[in-house]
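Example record

The entry below shows one chain as it appears in the dataset: sequence first, then C-alpha cells.
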Amino acid sequence: MKFVPFEDYTLITYLSPEEVKRRLEEKLNLKRRTFSFSFGSQSDPDRPYEGTFQGNKFVIKRIINYRNSFLPEITGVVTHEVVHTAIKIKMTMAVFVYAFLAIWMLLMSVILFSVKSSTGENIIPLGMLGNIPFLPQVLLCLFVYAVTLGAFKYESIKSKKFLAALFEGREEGK
C-alpha cells in the first residue's frame, strides 16, 4: 500500500479499446453536477459513475450519497498495444482539497507555535526521551494525514475493484 493520497497504475485487458469505451459508457452518467444538496438514494445503481469519455481519454468520479471531500477524481487513457489494451489510470483528490489541507496544517502549526511561545512553555518534557518542542504540531499533522489517507484509500480501493471487474483486467505487474 502506498502512503500517499494518489494512485497511478495500468490495467491490462484483452478487450478492444472500443469494447472498453462501450463498457465504461454503459456505467457512466454524463457529468451532471458540480455541487448538490441531495441526501437520498438518487443514483442509478447500474450507472455508479459520472464523467466524460472523449477520444481515448476519460475523466470520472464515483457517485456517492454521502459527503467525502477525499473522493478520487479518476482520469484514464486507453491505448491499444500489440497483444492487449492498456488503461493508464490516475486517481487524485481535487486540487482544492490539497490546497486546503496544506493551508490548514500550516495555520494550525503557526497557531500552536505562537500559543506555546507566548506562554513561555514551548517544550514538553518527556522524561528519558528528552524534550520535544513541537510534539503537538507533529501529532496533529499526522492525525490529519491519517484521516486524509484513510478516506482517500477507502474510495480508491472501491474504484480499483470496480474498474478491474468492468474491464476484466489485472493491474500491470501483479
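Notes for this example: The radius of gyration is 21 Å. The mean pLDDT is 81.
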